[in-house]
Design a protein that fits this description.
The protein has 396 residues and is an alpha+beta fold. It has 14 helices and 16 strands. The strands form 4 sheets. The protein has a 5-stranded mixed beta sheet with strand order 7-6-5-8-9, with helices on both faces. A 4-stranded antiparallel beta sheet has the order 3-2-1-4, with helices on both faces. The N terminus is likely disordered.
Length: 396
């Protein structure tokens, strides 16, 4: 792993920790692709000015939506260091996330390799980690190995890029043609020796893969090569690595590093989409049978506030889900509920999905953001979100 990739991943993990804090954070995500903002820049022009004005407009709109003077005052204190940072930032990635509180000022900044086109501003308990969580899932390391009988190519891949490579070669004994009866009689022993040599080769590769997996925190494993060699390596893998297998593919030995990388990334994406479809199918089925699952924004929000949700599932490809938050008691409500049903305080508009992600981290609830066909099903049948309930609460 390069220091840049490792630092970026650690930064994102640190942002997730901010979601667990109870104080109100101003969270700002700015889409700023350097290929766009630095393009056709004339001498003397500031390429960041447009980004600054765009974010400033988002901040003004978010402040006006609060309506509560005390909240607006706290918002203003938190926005100053954010605006200062954006005014002088040099964008090297497609997105930027900033997190500030009135108490601590600017707490964290993180550059993101991918970010939806729209900017986002949130002010509420804990940091907004929705986009950071989505990006972090894409950064999960994948290990790929092209295995043959006497050699192997090992890659560690993160965010679609190779961050580590290793070539392995094992010696191959010279084969001579059996010309005498004694030579023919010794052939079985030669075959046994060859089989043992291959097993040692596979064990050696498996040991190197274990070391690489620990160093790069591998989450998925992809194998390619002849069926016999793949089977031999699978048999040599320790249980910790075998559990990460996402299948194997056909990549010829002469194809090169790029082909192996692309095959592994595509396999990881297919495996992830398949797992998401299975998860959403189970969620929809259990919710329909009232067997420990809920569907829909408000049923899910209600269960989450009661700490009944074990796994929150959100459609990452959909539009924001409108809702409202009470600044006094923190209650999350439907978009039409302008006054809190619990304490009668005036509420302000929020994106319910982002609020529930932050709430889930404070409550220790797992979160899964799905894409593709799974997101489409969840949006059509569950309004973009749902949750699997804890066993103790599902039985009620």
């Amino acid at each position: 792993m390069t220091s840049h990739e490792g630092t970026r991943r650690q930064d994102l993990l640190g942002v997730l920790e901010l979601a667990k804090r109870p104080e109100r954070f101003l969270s700002v995500y700015a889409a700023a692709d350097p290929l766009v903002i630095y393009r056709d820049v004339r001498p003397g022009e500031d390429p960041h000015h447009e980004v600054f004005l765009r974010v400033k407009g988002q901040l003004d709109a978010a402040r006006d939506a609060l309506s509560n003077p005390e909240l607006q005052k706290e918002f203003d204190i938190a926005r100053r260091p954010i605006e200062d940072f954006i005014a002088r930032a040099k964008f090297a990635e497609r997105g930027l996330g900033l997190f500030a509180s009135a108490q601590d000022g600017l707490v964290a900044t993180v550059f993101l390799p991918a970010l939806p086109a729209q900017d986002a501003v949130r002010f509420g308990p804990g940091a907004d980690v929705y986009p950071a969580l989505d990006v972090l899932e894409e950064l999960e390391p994948v290990m790929a190995c092209l295995i043959e009988r006497n050699r192997a190519t090992l890659l560690a891949i993160q965010a679609g890029e190779v961050v580590y490579r290793r070539s392995v070669r094992s010696p191959v004994p010279h084969k001579s043609r059996a010309t005498t009866r004694a030579d023919r009689l010794s052939a079985p022993k030669s075959q046994q020796y060859e089989a043992e040599r291959e097993r040692r080769h596979y064990r050696r590769v498996a040991e190197l893969m274990s070391e690489t997996g620990r160093e790069y925190s591998t989450r998925r494993l992809f194998l390619a090569g002849p069926d016999e060699a793949v089977s031999g390596l699978r048999a040599a893998l320790p249980r910790s690595l075998a559990s990460l297998l996402q299948g194997n593919g056909s990549v010829p030995g002469y194809a090169g590093e790029a082909a192996l990388r692309d095959a592994a990334v595509q396999a990881a994406a297919r495996e992830e989409r398949h797992a998401e479809e299975t998860m959403v199918s189970e969620l929809v089925t259990r919710a329909a049978k009232n067997e420990g699952a809920v569907l829909g924004p408000y049923a899910t929000a209600y269960a989450a506030e009661q700490r009944r949700v074990h796994l929150l599932v959100l459609a990452g490809d959909g539009d924001p889900i409108p809702g409202r938050r009470c600044p006094a008691c923190g209650h999350l409500a439907p978009a039409e509920e302008t006054r809190c049903s619990l304490c009668q305080t005036s509420t302000y508009p929020v994106d319910l999905g982002r609020e529930l992600v932050s709430l889930s981290y404070r409550n220790g609830t797992s979160v899964e953001i799905v894409h593709g066909p799974a997101a489409k099903v969840l949006s059509e049948q569950g309004g973009g979100m749902g949750g699997l309930l804890k066993l103790a609460t599902a039985a009620r």
